[in-house]
Design a protein that fits this description.
This protein is about 10% helix and about 15% strand. With about 270 residues, the protein is mainly β. A hairpin with a 5-residue loop joins strand 1 and strand 2.
Length: about 270
């Protein structure tokens, strides 16, 4: 009887020790120890790791496997006031707040926002300085090819004297007192402007050495075949042609004579 009672006490004591030994391994929540290789319990307070290490980093996470996976951070932050980001890096001094490095990789990483599209932003910043090395494919939602300003200079004879490229003359003072231009590209959504070019030498057509230099005048420009403009020449009846109308200061047409010379005109297409 005594032996049986002693054995029972030993079993109870061993069981108690086992339970006490297992309990810390089963739960690690607020105030508990960090457990390796398993999911730790839910903490209800902030965990702080503070050091004064002047030679390295406070913590280091590394995975030597070639499949990657050094660290992952997740949260369920919602939009709105008071919500915190899943990750915040704050440098209280004057050095870098972050640094990313991908040795030998073609791309350092990705930033995805939902399903993407023009309604999503990869990030915002209040810094307006030039980001060295940043090469943007689009500026303010517009492709680089659509940011160009093309131009041409039409001389007194209605010929293209200079241009940025792609322009040809369709009709110059033949059908009427206007010049019609093919810009070599669609004018849909483009801006047009024209201005009289300064001319302080004698007209190339003049034979009068006493003729006055031409400074004044006015000019209008428009896209052909719109709700407001009907172009006359058959080859300009397309919304991808433009008409230039140089005039004297009183609005009368120029004639290309010594007494009533034509105007030199700059035309600009803003794309």
């Amino acid at each position: 009887m005594g032996s049986h009672s002693t054995r029972a006490r030993h079993v109870v004591l061993a069981s108690t020790i086992l339970v006490l030994g297992i309990a810390p391994l089963g739960v690690a929540a607020t105030g508990g120890a960090l457990r390796e290789g398993v999911r730790n319990g839910t903490a209800t307070k902030e965990t702080e790791i503070v050091s004064n290490n002047g030679t390295g980093y406070t913590t280091r996470q590394s995975n030597k496997s070639t499949t990657g996976g050094g660290a992952i951070y997740g949260c369920r932050s919602t939009a709105g006031a008071g919500a915190k980001p899943c990750l915040r890096v704050n440098n209280l001094a004057t050095g870098f707040a972050f640094e990313f490095n991908a040795t030998g990789a073609a791309s350092a990483g990705t930033i995805t926002v939902g399903s993407g599209g023009d309604g999503k932003k990869p990030f915002t910043t209040n810094a307006t300085g030039v980001a060295t090395g940043l090469n943007a494919d689009r500026v303010d939602g517009v492709e680089p090819a659509a940011l160009r300003t093309r131009w041409l200079l039409i001389n007194e004879a209605g010929q293209i004297e200079e241009q940025s490229g792609g322009f040809t003359v369709l009709d110059a003072y033949q059908t009427n007192q206007n010049v019609y231009i093919d810009p070599g590209a669609s004018l849909n959504g483009k801006g047009l402007s024209a201005t009289i070019a300064i001319q302080n030498k004698l007209n190339v057509d003049t034979t009068d050495p006493e003729a006055d230099p031409v400074f004044g005048g006015e000019v209008s420009v428009a896209r052909c075949q719109t709700v407001a403009v009907e172009c006359a020449p058959a080859n300009s009846k397309t919304p991808n042609a433009l008409v230039v109308s140089p005039r004297n200061s009183d609005g009368t047409a120029t004639a290309g004579t010594d007494a009533n010379p034509r105007k030199r005109v700059y035309v600009t297409v803003t794309e």
